[in-house]
């Protein structure tokens, strides 16, 4: 049994097949746009949630839980926000057969309009600030585009942090801190390389002053947005009446930010970025099972081999690893396929020779190497190999991303770059609203989106705007996107 789908040549089929074969999700639920997430993906997403929650809390955020229903009047309080979200909102209008709600209730598409009326009640004085809260929850948006498990569905799982500050400077510093957290977690812990952008003015969150977001490169050359963070200025504070009394006893509107890492989407990125033609490939820290033990007994040695496997499982579990011994009656080859497809990082193969020589044969999922190690070194070696595997995944992914960026000096060149499933780097007139016409022209001719300017490095234009020929004020990236 092998996996016959080539990730680079036909990413779409590869992604569909891996979802089925590794039992990550199921599309047969029966409500359009809604997807069932199965155990193997949920176990990893729980680990991801845990890492992200700890990161937010270490930066001063406290957890809250808000209701999923939002009164329609709340949603309508910030004009740009309601305009941006209203086409996607699911409404709850009745209970049972006979009770119709006077005011329809929205299933939260995002929680600004759920949280901020409460913030108005809670925040009084400069002493209450900064005020940082987050929740882990799902949100619902009526997406028109085709559903793809994890990458796009009408219900998805995220964390949303909503922070309040006395000054615009502190709020803007939070935006940068959010992007730093993105790097700490998404890149350094989940191993997904990302470029952080300040988005163009025409592509910001509904109601925000500006939006920053991280993009990763998918195997088909498209960029996918991972966490985004928004500087809201005092727009929402004015709309929702979030005020505080400053040190001079004067009433002031507060400044706000919000940050939304979507765990289910990042998980989709994880599958896509690290998986290979043999299936899923999980970083060591995120694997529900980090080490699978496969007994390979010959006739008459079943007991001795199984006994050794039990000892090793116990030893590794005690050392803190997530371990599983595959005692099913499948043949060893079928067991290999099963766990490789699910991306388990390390496999211990234990047969007669290993029992006699007090060794273990370790198979490394990323390089497909087999290494024989003495049992005395087992814990240390498993740890080292786990770290090395994750580092290798990150190295590969970063090299692929960096290698996929090409400078382009005309719309034709952009088109060639995108056709080669790569990302174009261009000089561009401006990221302010006046630049939108040039961006639209690029989109129309090449299908590519203008992603904004990099936050992680300053870049100098290397020519005039590729569209209008005016002096370029920005360097931007153009790619097809998810
Ligand atoms: Zn231009």
Features:
BirA Bifunctional Protein, domain 2; 26% strand; single chain; 14 helices; 482 residues; Rossmann fold; Translation Initiation Factor IF3; binds zinc ion; alpha+beta
Which regions have little confidence, pLDDT < 50, spanning 5+ residues?
Answer: none
Q: How many β-strand runs?
A: 24
Q: What's the CATH H-level homologous superfamily of the largest domain?
A: Bira Bifunctional Protein, Domain 2
Shape estimate: globular
Listed once per kind, the bound small molecules are: zinc ion
Percent of sequence in beta strands: 25-35%
CATH architecture of the largest domain: 2-Layer Sandwich
From the alpha carbons, calculate the radius of gyration and give it in angstroms.
25 Å
| Class derived from helix and strand content | alpha+beta
Spatially, the strands of the biggest sheet line up as 3-7-8-14-11-10-9-23
Mean of residue pLDDT values: 95
Helical residue percent? 25-40%
Summarize the biggest pleated sheet: 8 strands, mixed
* CATH uppermost class of the largest domain: Alpha Beta
Q: Report the span from N to C terminus.
A: 32 Å
Walk me through the structure:
The protein is α+β, with helices and mostly antiparallel strands. The protein folds into 3 domains: 11-274, BirA Bifunctional Protein, domain 2 (2-Layer Sandwich); 289-385, Rossmann fold, CATH 3.40.50.800; 405-479, Translation Initiation Factor IF3, CATH 3.30.110.30. The protein is 35% helix and 26% strand. It is built from 14 helices and 24 strands. It has helices at 11-21, 39-58, 72-75, 79-85, 112-122, 168-187, 235-240, 263-274, 302-318, 332-341, 352-357, 378-403, 411-419, 436-446, and strands at 25-26, 36-37, 62-63, 69-71, 91-95, 99-107, 131-140, 155-165, 195-198, 210-217, 223-233, 243-245, 251-253, 255-260, 291-296, 323-325, 346-351, 359-364, 370-374, 405-407, 423-428, 449-450, 453-454, 474-479. Strands 3-7-8-14-11-10-9-23 form an 8-stranded mixed beta sheet. A 5-stranded mixed beta sheet has the order 16-15-17-18-19, with helices on both faces. A hairpin with a 5-residue loop joins β12 (243-245) and β13 (251-253). The protein is globular, with a radius of gyration of 25 Å. It starts with 10 loop residues before the first helix and ends with a strand. The mean pLDDT is 95. The structure holds zinc ion (ZN). The site of zinc ion has 7 residues, from loops.
């Amino acid at each position: 049994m092998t996996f016959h789908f080539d990730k680079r040549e036909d990413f779409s089929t590869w992604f569909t097949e891996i979802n089925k074969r590794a039992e990550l999700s199921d599309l047969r639920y029966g409500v359009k746009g809604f997807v069932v997430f199965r155990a193997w993906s949920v176990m990893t997403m729980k680990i991801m949630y845990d890492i992200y929650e700890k990161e937010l809390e270490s930066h001063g955020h406290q957890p809250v839980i808000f209701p999923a229903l939002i009164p329609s009047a709340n949603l309508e309080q910030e004009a740009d926000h309601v305009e941006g979200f209203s086409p996607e909102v699911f409404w709850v209008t009745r209970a049972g057969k006979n009770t119709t709600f006077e005011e329809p209730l929205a299933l939260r598409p995002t929680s600004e309009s759920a949280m901020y009326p409460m913030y108005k009640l809670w925040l009084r004085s400069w002493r209450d600030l900064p005020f940082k809260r987050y929740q882990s929850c799902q949100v619902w948006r009526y997406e028109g585009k085709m559903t793809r498990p994890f990458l796009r569905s009408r219900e998805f799982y995220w964390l949303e942090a909503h922070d309040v500050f006395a000054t615009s400077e502190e709020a803007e510093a939070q935006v940068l801190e959010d992007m730093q957290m993105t790097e700490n977690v998404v890149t350094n812990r989940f191993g997904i390389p990302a470029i952080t952008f300040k988005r163009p003015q025409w592509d910001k969150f509904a109601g925000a002053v500006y939006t920053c977001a991280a993009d990763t490169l998918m195997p088909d050359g498209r960029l996918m947005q991972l966490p985004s963070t928004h500087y809201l200025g005092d727009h929402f504070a004015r709309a929702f009446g979030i005020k505080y009394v400053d040190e001079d006893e004067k009433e002031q509107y507060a400044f706000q930010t919000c940050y939304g890492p979507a765990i289910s989407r990042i998980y989709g990125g994880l599958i896509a970025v690290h998986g290979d033609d043999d299936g899923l490939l999980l970083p060591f820290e995120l694997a529900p099972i980090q080490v699978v033990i496969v007994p390979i007994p010959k006739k008459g040695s079943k007991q001795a081999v199984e006994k050794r496997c039990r000892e090793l499982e116990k030893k590794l579990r005690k050392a803190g690893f997530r371990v599983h011994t595959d005692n099913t009656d499948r043949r060893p080859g079928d067991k290999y396929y099963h766990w490789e497809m699910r991306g388990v990082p390390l496999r211990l193969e234990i047969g007669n020779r290993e029992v006699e020589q007090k060794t273990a044969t370790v198979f490394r999922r990323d390089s497909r190497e087999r290494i024989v190690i003495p049992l005395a070194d087992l814990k240390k070696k498993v740890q080292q190999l786990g770290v090395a595997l994750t580092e290798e995944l990150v190295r590969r992914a970063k090299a692929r991303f960096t290698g996929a960026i090409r400078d382009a000096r005309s719309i034709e060149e952009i088109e060639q770059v995108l056709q080669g499933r790569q990302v174009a780097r261009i000089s561009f007139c401006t990221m302010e609203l006046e630049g939108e016409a040039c961006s639209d022209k690029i989109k129309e001719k090449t299908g590519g989106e203008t992603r904004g300017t990099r936050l992680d490095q300053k870049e100098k234009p290397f020519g005039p705007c590729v569209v209008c020929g005016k002096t370029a004020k920005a360097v931007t990236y153009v790619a097809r996107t998810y």
